[in-house]
Design a protein that fits this description.
The chain is mainly α. It is built from two helices and no strands.
Length: 65
């Protein structure tokens, strides 16, 4: 085949590359979602009470009013 004549491929012909890109993008999404969910759970008052976190400065509602 002459190197000056390039054959254009369709997206379906390159499905392996598309699938690899999709899997990589989805893995990054899952990593970010897990990090955000875990950080949110660890900051909840119930989680902190169950796992024995002692707050050095207890929150008092009277200071807000």
């Amino acid at each position: 085949m002459d190197p000056t004549h390039h054959r254009f491929t369709t997206l379906w012909e390159e499905k392996r590359v598309v699938i690899i890109c999709f899997v990589l993008a989805f893995a990054q999404f899952q990593y970010g979602y897990d990090s955000a969910a875990i950080a949110g759970f660890q900051s909840m008052v119930g989680f902190l009470q169950v796992f024995g976190y002692q707050d050095v400065f207890p929150f008092e509602e009277s200071k807000l009013m």
